[in-house]
């Protein structure tokens, strides 16, 4: 079982930046990838970004390409999401997720951290 703990959310003005962190513990030796999802009020949860542990390979939703950067620190078992040029549409609860194998989907989730972008 993998436990994920997020931090770094908060209130920021449009155009500003925030960095989210997600630290994994437990059965981390089996991790294949970690990612970030978000859920805005009244909307479904959506994919934001993903990074594989080996490689690493990164993927982004079109809506955040060029503004968000995902990275990892293997020694700290931590994944970061650097969010720049924030817009009001980025306001959401951001969830960290982990996948134990390719093709299995994300099977561990954090509790979420709230990002609010004021315009």
Structure in words:
With 119 residues, the chain is mainly beta. It has no helices and eleven strands. Strands 2, 4, 5, 6, 9, 10 and 11 form a seven-stranded mixed β-sheet that branches. The chain has a four-stranded antiparallel β-sheet with strand order 1-3-8-7, with no helix packed on it. It is globular.
Alpha carbon gap, first and last residue: 40 Å
Q: Pairing-aware structural class of the strands and helices?
A: mainly beta
Strand content: over 45%
Report the average pLDDT across residues: 94
Number of DSSP helical runs? 0
- Given the C-alpha coordinates, what overall shape results? globular
Unreliably modeled segments? none
Instruction: Give the radius of gyration.
Output: 13 Å
Number of strands: 11
**Helix residue percentage:** under 10%
The largest sheet is: 7 strands, mixed
Q: How do the SSEs run, as a string of H and E?
A: EEEEEEEEEEE
